[in-house]
Amino acid sequence: MDVAIIGCGYVGLVTGTCLAAIGHTVKGVEKDPRKLKTLQDGHCPIFEPGLQELLNENYASGQIQFTGNVKDAVRDAEVVFLCVGTPPKPDGTVDMSFLEGAGKEVCDALAEMNSEYLVTIVVKSTVPAGTNRKLYNFLREQTKAHVQVVSNPEFLKEGTAVQDCMNPDRIVIGGESPEAFRMMRRLYDPLIKREDNFMTMNWESAELTKYAANSMLAARISFMNEMTILCEFYGADVEDIRKGIGSDNRIGPAFLRAGCGYGGSCFPKDVAAMEHISKAAGYENLFTNAIQTVNKNQKKRFVDKIEAKLGRPIAGATIAVWGLAFKADTDDIRESAALDVIQYLLDKGATVRAHDYKGMEHMKQVFKDQVEWCTDPVTAAAGADAVALTTDWPQYTTLPFRKIAATMNQPMIFDGRNCLHRDVMRENGFQYFPMGRPPVENKLRLKNKV
């Protein structure tokens, strides 16, 4: 099938590249001249494991092409994906202007070509209930083109997005047109392993499915983060609890890892939107309100622990922050725990030295010269009073810890992702403070060093 992708950001580029990989002819539209030039040179403007390689293969074969011209992209398209931003307004409502603008531009191009064939416009963007219906009614008033609108929320996890797209556990399609449903079934046919994985429903159900999924996952993380408080008070181990409840078939093991707070482009935004659309329905959503409160408190509690255990005033102390992206295998810093942690540390008068394997350039744009940027974690820790680990990059687990301990003012690590090995920390003389797990004090060794 001929497919057009309007907006080649994270979702659009992953979706378009994967559709090209299963045999569709894809034209991606990107209005940003610099990003378009990067794409037309065959380079991926974002970091996502496996995406560059897949893009190379399909760009070289001509399965996917990029343009800045909407009319050129939709000329032969049977399906047009709208993958533009739907940012929140200050009052919490969704800014529909980009979505409406893109939809109208597509319809104007189709009307100008006098196309008599049905074109299915697919909204990939996460939008509140009722948005797709409003968009369809808006487009009907704006154009005479023969179009239908469907909601097709994405369920991609950064770091595994290519795998998620190529092996989806479900495909959700919302709409009212049986013809559009059939079009989408053809589009996704190579990816459908079981028929019940392809789900059709009305617009509102599809829209709420995305919000419900992300709110539920954020709730699971937040519940475990709350458990770290009890674990630290009573001397329990949150990892044992995770295994104990995760082995229950009614609960399952996913999204039960405790840490210093979740982040990213989806969970914070979608939970906040869920709270707003609940208010629009006339009630206060205590559930989503609590999730956001727990997440905010967990980031602050992480810094409070550093201040309490540091053994010296935090004002004037040097803290190395390992990890700036909101999770490993991405350069995305949106709502990253490190954003709040660094700001809290700076507000308390600490000197911050930071490192990340992919997200450093993005974070530099936020804090500029307020932070000392280090090219490697060993350099960041040298001369520091403590390390605060906020991203679970696997490379952090294999560092030369004996060397690092020798170069620090005091060998102390606060592990906000519980990804380091306690025995390794003990054997290398560190004081080690994970989240909701027994600490490694090494008090005698530190006293001897002093």
Automatic annotation (TrEMBL):
<dbReference type="Pfam" id="PF03720">
    <property type="entry name" value="UDPG_MGDP_dh_C"/>
</dbReference>
<dbReference type="GO" id="GO:0003979">
    <property type="term" value="F:UDP-glucose 6-dehydrogenase activity"/>
</dbReference>
<feature type="binding site">
    <location>
        <begin position="155"/>
        <end position="158"/>
    </location>
    <ligand>
        <name>substrate</name>
    </ligand>
</feature>
<keyword id="KW-0520">NAD</keyword>
<comment type="similarity">
    <text>Belongs to the UDP-glucose/GDP-mannose dehydrogenase family.</text>
</comment>
<protein>
    <recommendedName>
        <fullName>UDP-glucose 6-dehydrogenase</fullName>
        <ecNumber>1.1.1.22</ecNumber>
    </recommendedName>
</protein>
<feature type="binding site">
    <location>
        <position position="334"/>
    </location>
    <ligand>
        <name>NAD(+)</name>
    </ligand>
</feature>
<dbReference type="InterPro" id="IPR036220">
    <property type="entry name" value="UDP-Glc/GDP-Man_DH_C_sf"/>
</dbReference>
<feature type="binding site">
    <location>
        <begin position="255"/>
        <end position="259"/>
    </location>
    <ligand>
        <name>substrate</name>
    </ligand>
</feature>
<dbReference type="Pfam" id="PF03721">
    <property type="entry name" value="UDPG_MGDP_dh_N"/>
</dbReference>
<feature type="binding site">
    <location>
        <position position="126"/>
    </location>
    <ligand>
        <name>NAD(+)</name>
    </ligand>
</feature>
<feature type="binding site">
    <location>
        <position position="210"/>
    </location>
    <ligand>
        <name>substrate</name>
    </ligand>
</feature>
<feature type="binding site">
    <location>
        <position position="269"/>
    </location>
    <ligand>
        <name>NAD(+)</name>
    </ligand>
</feature>
<feature type="binding site">
    <location>
        <position position="86"/>
    </location>
    <ligand>
        <name>NAD(+)</name>
    </ligand>
</feature>
<keyword id="KW-0560">Oxidoreductase</keyword>
<feature type="active site" description="Nucleophile">
    <location>
        <position position="266"/>
    </location>
</feature>
<feature type="domain" description="UDP-glucose/GDP-mannose dehydrogenase C-terminal">
    <location>
        <begin position="320"/>
        <end position="422"/>
    </location>
</feature>
<dbReference type="InterPro" id="IPR014027">
    <property type="entry name" value="UDP-Glc/GDP-Man_DH_C"/>
</dbReference>
<dbReference type="GO" id="GO:0006065">
    <property type="term" value="P:UDP-glucuronate biosynthetic process"/>
</dbReference>
<dbReference type="InterPro" id="IPR014026">
    <property type="entry name" value="UDP-Glc/GDP-Man_DH_dimer"/>
</dbReference>
<dbReference type="InterPro" id="IPR028357">
    <property type="entry name" value="UDPglc_DH_bac"/>
</dbReference>
<comment type="pathway">
    <text>Nucleotide-sugar biosynthesis; UDP-alpha-D-glucuronate biosynthesis; UDP-alpha-D-glucuronate from UDP-alpha-D-glucose: step 1/1.</text>
</comment>
<dbReference type="InterPro" id="IPR001732">
    <property type="entry name" value="UDP-Glc/GDP-Man_DH_N"/>
</dbReference>
<dbReference type="GO" id="GO:0000271">
    <property type="term" value="P:polysaccharide biosynthetic process"/>
</dbReference>
<feature type="binding site">
    <location>
        <position position="327"/>
    </location>
    <ligand>
        <name>substrate</name>
    </ligand>
</feature>
<dbReference type="GO" id="GO:0051287">
    <property type="term" value="F:NAD binding"/>
</dbReference>
<feature type="binding site">
    <location>
        <position position="263"/>
    </location>
    <ligand>
        <name>substrate</name>
    </ligand>
</feature>
<dbReference type="InterPro" id="IPR036291">
    <property type="entry name" value="NAD(P)-bd_dom_sf"/>
</dbReference>
<dbReference type="InterPro" id="IPR017476">
    <property type="entry name" value="UDP-Glc/GDP-Man"/>
</dbReference>
<feature type="binding site">
    <location>
        <position position="158"/>
    </location>
    <ligand>
        <name>NAD(+)</name>
    </ligand>
</feature>
<feature type="binding site">
    <location>
        <position position="35"/>
    </location>
    <ligand>
        <name>NAD(+)</name>
    </ligand>
</feature>
<dbReference type="InterPro" id="IPR008927">
    <property type="entry name" value="6-PGluconate_DH-like_C_sf"/>
</dbReference>
<dbReference type="Pfam" id="PF00984">
    <property type="entry name" value="UDPG_MGDP_dh"/>
</dbReference>
